[in-house]
Structure formats: C-alpha cells, structure tokens
Design goal:
By secondary structure, this protein is an alpha/beta fold. Helices cover 39% and strands 22% of the residues. The strands form two sheets. Strands 1, 2, 5, 6, 7, 8 and 9 form a seven-stranded mixed sheet that branches. A two-stranded antiparallel sheet has the order 3-4. The longest helix has 24 residues, at 166-189. Bound molecules: flavin mononucleotide. Flavin mononucleotide (FMN) binds at residues 10-15, 69-73, 105-108, 111-112, 158. Its cofactor is FMN. Keywords: Flavoprotein, FMN.
C-alpha cells in the first residue's frame, strides 16, 4: 500500500472541500490510500503548533499534499505554525525523497494565490521533497480542468454559490490522481 496524506488548514470549509477531492483522486489509484489531516487552530499555542501524532503520521507517508487558503497573500498563520513545527524533521532529513504537491484557494481570481503555492513549494524543497505540479495545460483540457492555469499546483477561487467551483474540485481530484500515479511510475519504471 502506498500511503499519502493531505494536510490542510481551513477556516470556512472551502480548502477542506479541495482536500477531500485531492484524497478522492489519490484513492482512484489502486493500492494508494490517503489520510486527511486537518490543522486545528486549537493546536497552536503561543504561536507554536503542537500535535506530535499528526506529524508522526506524516513521517510514515510516501507523499504529502499541502493545502492552505490564501490569507493576506500567503499561507494561513495556522498552516505556517505547522510548517515551523517540522523544523526538527528538516534537521534530520526525515521527509527527503517523499513526493509533495500543493493547493490553495482565495476569494479573488488573482488574489496572490501563487505566492501561497510557492510558499508550499519552497517548504517542500526545504525538506528535500520532490514537488509535483499540474501537467494539465490551461485551456487544453477537454473538461476544462485547471481553469485558472496554474502549473505549480492547484489554485482555486471561491464561488458565491457553494464555495468551490466544480472545475476546481475536479482539478483537485486530478492533482491527487497525478501524485499517486507518479509514485506508481517511480516504482514500476525506475526512471521517470
Ligand atoms: C484574513 C483573510 C485574508 C484573506 N486574504 C486573501 C488574499 O490575500 N487573497 C485572496 O484571494 N483571498 C483572501 N482571503 C479569502 C480566503 O482565501 C477565501 O475566503 C478562502 O475560500 C478561505 O478558505 P477556507 O474556506 O478554507 O477557510 C482572505 C480571507 C481572510 C479571512
């Protein structure tokens, strides 16, 4: 079994919808499973994130997908506290070689979501993880996925109706499918 985790923060539920879609995409790959791990604000005390059980769950995964809403042009403070809490693992290279990917949602079509994605990408690189973006060229997918055209990962924009656009949800599923498929390719083909 190949183990993934989708670790995310969500204040009003839209990032959570995307997280569930990423996990559903991972599950479409035979032999892949995904744990949904939510960063809870109550685990941040005096600015420090404390949840050793969640961090240990991440240690045993082959890949981790990171998700945060875009707040003030970057990751939410709760997610950043989680990031900082992994520094001891950075020191002992605990996550080197794991696959990584990321997603974010904002309230504006161009609300600086890219900076959030790049923050997640740099975070993964700090850990020596292997970043997977989205290989769906914007405007070329027959079902309209990756409608916002981000190749570094999923960027979404909040909708008035149900919070998350159906195409953003489908793109999140694709991101999950892709990272689990990459892991399978590495195992079966050796080289990519
Ligand atoms: C404090 C705060 C800052 C925000 N900053 C941004 C921003 O910089 N760019 C943007 O597009 N949306 C911004 N938003 C909107 C949220 O990203 C958006 O509502 C998102 O769907 C929230 O995700 P959640 O439902 O998972 O909590 C902000 C919202 C809040 C509460």
């Amino acid at each position: 079994m190949t183990k993934f985790a989708v670790v995310y923060y969500s204040a009003t539920g839209t990032t959570e919808i995307l997280a569930r879609a990423v996990a559903a995409g991972i599950h479409t790959n035979v032999g892949a499973e995904a744990a949904l791990l939510k960063i809870e604000g109550e685990d941040v005390r005096e600015g420090r994130y404390e949840n050793p059980e969640l961090l240990q769950q991440l240690d045993s995964c082959h890949g981790i997908v990171f998700g945060s809403p875009t707040f003030m042009g970057s990751v939410a403070a709760q997610f950043k506290a989680f990031m900082d809490a992994t520094s001891e693992r950075w020191g002992r290279r605990a996550w080197t070689g794991k696959l990584a990917a990321g997603f974010t949602i904002g309230g504006s079509p161009s609300g600086d979501q890219l900076n959030t994605l790049q923050t997640l990408q740099v975070f993964a690189s700090q850990h020596g993880m292997l970043w997977s973006g989205i290989d769906l060229p914007a405007g070329w997918d027959s079902s309209g996925r990756n409608r916002l055209g981000s190749q570094s990962g999923l960027t979404a924009v909040r909708c008035d109706s149900n919070g998350v656009h159906q195409l953003d949800r489908l793109t999140a599923m694709y991101l999950g499918e892709r990272i689990a498929g990459l892991r399978r390719s590495i195992l079966t083909e050796g080289d990519l």
